Amino acid sequence: TVTAPRCGAVPGHRRALHHSKGHYFTAILLASLCISIAGCSSSPIAALEADQTAQDEFPESLSAEVFGIDPDSVRFAATKEGIDFYLAQQGTPNGERGVCVVINVIEDPERATAACSGSVSSVQPLTAGMTGYADAEVVTDDFDTSDLVQEGWEQVHSNLLVQLP
Length: 165
Fold this sequence. Notes:
- By secondary structure, the protein is of the alpha+beta class.
- Helix content is 14%, strand content 26%.
- The strands form two sheets. It has a four-stranded antiparallel beta sheet with strand order 1-2-3-4. Strands 5-6-8-7 form a four-stranded antiparallel beta sheet, with no helix packed on it.
- A hairpin with a 3-residue loop joins strand 5 (126-130) and strand 6 (134-138).
- The longest helix is centred in the N-terminal third of the chain and has 18 residues, at 21-38.
- The protein starts with 20 loop residues before the first helix and ends with a strand.
């Protein structure tokens, strides 16, 4: 069986964004490369279009700007075993609105990580991981999650699946 690479991921390698602009640039570069090679196309994520509530805002220990995220786009997705997951959009100078996932260990917010992609398609999710804590897959509204669920992913939100060690 041959499977297409996941957008934003390099096979056998996961790189997280730990408050580092260099890593942020690397993740964006990898996501852009995947989009150009795999032909990923944008598809809607309704959660990002909903009105922001107080629950959606980052805790004071996190800064959307550090991750290159538009603070008004942040949407809380789920909490699983002491880890908060947020969906958001990039805030880029050229106005492009990529999709992001933020993984925040509640008891240790310094370990927060984020991954962003210029696009998430109905066939390729955005993959992010925090070694030793959690992996996340952001999917579009029309994404068929049955294969991921069979592989052991847990759907914690209509647009988010997670795996914990």
